[in-house]
Design goal:
homotetramer, about 140 residues, alpha+beta, Thiol Ester Dehydrase, Chain A, six-stranded antiparallel beta sheet, about 25% helix
């Protein structure tokens, strides 16, 4: 059962949904998101642009770190590209919390094609005290400072 | 004058071009890419999805590290998000080589909105010995191992 | 049973041994190293210098990625500091392989004080074709290029 | 003229001083620290342990991010190893602020041997509201949460 905070966030996450991502699961500190790789994701070397692998991993990270309720924002992330990805591949990003401390968190996301790892991502989150709506209207809106 | 290797790569980089990126400049170890932020880049907190900032920075990085001719691939990257980005913003990513050694390179990309920094990206590249076409057909195709 | 390649490497690793590190375990892709925190590791804020936490994690990483026999070198690493560490603390770094591909590898190292996490480290390795001795004498000696 | 906050911090930074580091310069957002590479910094491959390069870079980073007065702590850092370092080498780490935002900062540190780059480091800082003494005695002491 996906937490309500995540379902609401996902429902309005046009960036993720408009490129075909599907939220398969989310719970306390974890999430699974699937994405088919399409023609418009190909780069000039005719493999998937690394930015789309990052996008997928970042979306799974967002669902995992917002699963606890308070608004959590990405402060940063590192990605290692493991294998080339092609049109028609279906990717699955599995996010899991590594550690939380104070307002910070570290989450690991592995991007798979079937059983094969194609990217390893580690995200750094910060929770903010207010609701997304307050964030949207306020000074510190939408990013952990 | 943008090097031919970069112009050819960019011409077929559907991932970058299909979301409105424009290559403004590229030369020995540097590149500048512009992107307008659109509705479909908004996430569930109603700010730009970090993945699109990464995509932009990663494209500038690709142009910079391929400016020398041999095919260079992204091995990985780290991004720090500095300020929230909104629909209608126009972003500019400026990539600059930091150091090259053996087949590896480190490139810094700063993403600006006007004069303001919105993200700092550091990419790690690897050159491969063969052409993109060989990469496309071969075993190690399309990713630095 | 610690692999011979790791035992030999550790026996001559003066950097690790001279500051009190002890290799507790190592096997296929994993390792555990312990270090007591001493007066000379304190920084100007009177907590342990982050560099010593990195040193400990990096040593565990080296033992894990050299457990397979061929010489593996650190290409880079990222560390997140989770909690302050003090004189007298005894730390334990536990390294585990995340993924290997081609000549590259990604290893996660968590640094504990008892059951508490004090740092999260992710290392990037590269294997080289030759022995340490060849590395020592040759041009590319001692670092993945 | 090195700021007083940095001079005081450095005077008690036993971790840096006890291994021979020398603070050459520090000012608004920048710092230069020198370190000779000694026998006890050699690892099992008979090159300098990467942890000592990190230690040096981290010390320069600490001086740069504390140059403004309020206490700044390392939240994390990434390092890329560029070239092997040997006993007898004299290294110089030059730290420069990249961007500050809210309580956060990003600092780049390049480690040189003469004119040659041997490592590239990027540190992430957080300032805390209180003095080091309060930090030392309080709950959140000594680490950015």
């Amino acid at each position: 059962m996906i937490p309500q905070a995540v379902r609401e966030m996902w429902a309005t996450d046009l960036a993720s949904r408009s490129i075909g991502m599907e939220l398969l699961d989310a719970g306390e500190g974890h999430a699974v998101v699937r994405m088919p790789v399409t023609d418009t994701m190909m780069n000039g070397h005719d493999v998937a642009h690394g930015g789309y692998l990052f996008l997928l991993a970042d979306s799974a990270f967002a669902c995992a770190c917002n699963s606890y309720g308070p608004v959590a924002l990405a402060a940063g992330a590192d990605i290692t590209f493991v294998a080339p990805v092609r049109r028609g591949d279906v990717l699955e990003a599995r996010a899991a919390e590594r550690v939380r401390f104070g307002r910070s968190g570290v989450y690991d996301v592995t991007v798979y094609r079937g059983d094969e790892v194609v990217a390893e991502f580690r995200g750094r989150s910060r929770t903010v005290g207010s609701s997304p709506q307050q964030q949207k209207n306020g000074a510190a809106d939408g990013r952990a400072e």
